[in-house]
Design goal:
Elements (H helix, E strand, L loop, with lengths): L2 H6 L4 H21 L5 H22 L2 H29 L15 H21 L15
Length: about 140
């Protein structure tokens, strides 16, 4: 796993204690901050709550359960970027141009986001690592 992935997903107590309070705060505050509970809003909140739950499970568990939880988080990121890409290309009605601000929603930014963030998350979801090479064990060395 790359240095980034091994640091973030290593189970470090510092990472766990630094991130967990903010995840819990977001899980409590987001439903309370919602003004209208439409079907769309409720589905979005359920997705965010599940994402927070998977993050917490991944941070506080070990082994196979941790791997499954982090893969679920990465899979939800892939799904979000795929939805953004499909919406911008098929339903937004915006033309594809190479100019424009990086901060605005556009087909170009959807493609870039999917390539830079979505595809690595897809790789992690499928294979459980960010690198192309498999993790070597003691048996592989000889």
């Amino acid at each position: 796993m790359s240095s980034f992935g091994s640091t973030l997903f290593s189970g470090s107590p510092f990472i766990r204690w630094a991130i967990s309070p903010f995840i819990v705060l977001a899980m409590v505050a987001l439903p309370l901050a919602s003004q209208a509970f439409t079907t769309k809003t409720v589905l979005f909140l359920i997705g965010i709550e599940l994402l927070g739950l998977f993050l917490l499970v991944g941070l506080w568990s070990k082994g196979r359960l941790q791997n499954i939880a982090f893969r679920a988080v990465a899979g939800s990121v892939v799904a979000a970027y795929a939805a953004y890409l499909i919406y911008e290309l098929c339903f937004s009605g915006k033309p594809f141009t190479l100019d424009g601000a990086r901060s605005e929603a556009s087909p170009k930014n959807a493609i870039l986001g999917f390539l830079v963030i979505g595809l690595p998350c897809l790789w992690f979801t499928l294979f459980g690592r960010f690198t192309f090479s498999r993790k070597q064990t003691e048996d592989d060395n000889g």
